[in-house]
User: Which sequence fits this backbone?
């Protein structure tokens, strides 16, 4: 595979088909083979983002894919990012920088103007790397959006890319989804579909084989791979808006140390951002992390995490209407541990002055921390490093809110900006995302939680490095695609591009 050159678009029959992880696995597999490979997603819709070394912002999935390639995250890999907020509007990030807010209809008009940005970035990547593996957005069959599409077949047409379709068989109906997605496209777009990958398969592949054989007869296209469902694959690279309530974060249930355990309830806010902050906690043996949205779960957990949000004021109102705000206040008054990150941290103050995200003016916070927050039009975007609890820590900041008039003790001593966050009673809060990925610091936090709630015998000295866990997850995905996808056939698709003799499916009314 060392001589392979070209690009391919990995599209989906729908959202959450597993495109992001398939692309990450392919990136790692190609990189292992000595191919200079890079990821690309023209347009992502996600509140799960990271800060690049040059101070830009991209979807976290593309950062993980870059990691799989052995590259630093770059705004080149995700030139357009949409961050949904309230009132059907989204914050637009172009080449890593804020570019205003738009509604759905406004963006349809604006998207055409972004096509040039996308084309320029992809062209530059193709000149620099042997292979560029592009990820589509949602379903490639959104024919209502085709005229202004810059992420799926619009991109494939503009850049002359072959397309591999991924479907999630765990949801059922995947063979019909592959056929129907292909058939609904116009003939020019159909000819770009080179083959299929079936994801998350459980069971005996020989039982599926008659279906894939018939699919090939009907469409003239091969199934390039059937990737099995993997219990051990848990890091969430998916840039979907939905983080399911009740979903357990971390290795399969029962994995890890035997003995006293800690329970962590991560509150699933409606407009949650950077939901992956809790993954570092979940990698520790003896720590069970679950997404929750009910007061009883907040009351019962050893630790509650109040995460970031794209709409702080709106989600604070939701917290109150659900009875979760009262549960959080009761925890604080009872001295039970709470960790609040970014928007969640801002909610705990006395007031929030917001003329930027919600434009509602000043609202009361939960009053658990003696600080005031004011939103500024200019977004803070930066990588951060400093000291917390006597340990070196790193993280990144993505927020409009600034803390003002705080009397609280800081949780972090930032090397550049000085005091950051707050440590008050059983509350720990910060604007830093990724703080808990600092290994020694994370374990000191868990030791503090265990001591605070009286869980004797809990030992937080696993020696686990979160970066090793992340690498193992990417390697697992690469192992899966290497074992279950015909990479030589895929390399041929990448090299030869769109085949001239690919058949089309003609619609007939009977």
Assistant:
């Amino acid at each position: 595979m060392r001589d392979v050159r070209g690009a391919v678009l990995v599209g989906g029959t729908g959202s959450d088909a597993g495109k992001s992880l398939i692309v990450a696995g392919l990136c790692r597999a190609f990189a292992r083979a000595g191919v200079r490979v890079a990821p690309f997603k023209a347009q992502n819709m996600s509140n799960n983002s990271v800060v690049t070394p040059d101070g830009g912002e991209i979807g976290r999935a593309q950062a993980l894919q870059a990691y799989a390639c052995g590259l630093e995250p770059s705004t080149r890999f995700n030139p357009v990012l949409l961050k949904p907020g309230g009132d059907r509007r989204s914050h637009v990030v172009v080449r890593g920088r804020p570019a205003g807010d738009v509604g759905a209809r406004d963006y349809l008009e604006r998207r055409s103007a972004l096509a040039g940005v996308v084309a320029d970035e992809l062209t530059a990547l193709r000149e620099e790397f042997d292979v560029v593996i592009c990820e589509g957005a949602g379903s490639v069959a959104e024919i209502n959006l085709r005229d202004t599409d810059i992420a799926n077949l619009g991109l494939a047409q503009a850049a002359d890319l072959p397309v591999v379709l991924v479907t999630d068989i765990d949801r059922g109906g995947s063979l019909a989804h592959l056929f129907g997605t292909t058939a609904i496209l116009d003939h020019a777009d159909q000819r770009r579909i080179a083959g299929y990958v079936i994801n998350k398969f459980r069971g005996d592949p020989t039982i599926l084989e008659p279906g894939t054989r018939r699919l090939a007869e009907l469409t003239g296209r091969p199934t390039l791979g059937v990737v099995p469902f993997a219990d051990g694959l848990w890091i969430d690279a998916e840039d979907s808006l939905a983080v399911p309530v009740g979903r357990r974060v971390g290795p399969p249930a029962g994995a890890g140390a035997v003995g006293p355990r800690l329970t962590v309830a991560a509150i699933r806010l409606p407009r949650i951002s950077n939901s992956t902050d809790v993954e570092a906690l979940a990698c520790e043996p003896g720590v069970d992390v679950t997404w929750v949205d009910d007061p009883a779960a907040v009351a019962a957990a050893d630790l509650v995490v109040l995460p970031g949000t794209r709409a702080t004021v709106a989600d604070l109102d939701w917290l109150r209407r659900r009875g979760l705000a009262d549960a959080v206040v009761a925890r604080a008054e009872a001295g039970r541990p709470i960790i609040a990150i970014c928007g969640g941290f801002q909610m705990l103050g006395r007031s929030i002055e917001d003329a930027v995200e919600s434009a509602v003016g000043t609202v009361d916070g939960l009053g658990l921390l003696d600080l005031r927050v004011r939103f500024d039009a200019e977004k803070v975007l930066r990588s951060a490093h400093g000291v917390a609890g006597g340990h070196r820590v790193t993280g990144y900041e993505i927020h409009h809110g600034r803390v003002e008039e705080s009397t609280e003790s800081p949780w972090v001593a930032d090397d550049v900006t000085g005091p950051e966050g707050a440590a008050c009673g059983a509350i720990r809060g910060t604007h830093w995302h990724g703080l808990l990925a600092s290994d020694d610091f994370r374990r000191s936090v868990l030791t503090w939680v265990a001591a605070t709630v009286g869980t004797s015998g809990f030992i937080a000295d696993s020696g686990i490095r979160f970066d090793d866990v992340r690498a193992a997850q990417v390697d697992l995905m690469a192992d899966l695609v290497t074992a279950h996808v015909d990479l030589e056939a895929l390399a041929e698709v990448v090299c030869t591009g769109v085949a001239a003799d690919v058949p089309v499916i003609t619609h007939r009314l009977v």
Notes: The chain is about 35% helix and 30% strand. The CA atoms of residues 224 and 489 lie 7 Å apart. The domain at 6-233+470-496 is CATH 3.40.50.300 (Rossmann fold). The chain has a mean pLDDT of 92.
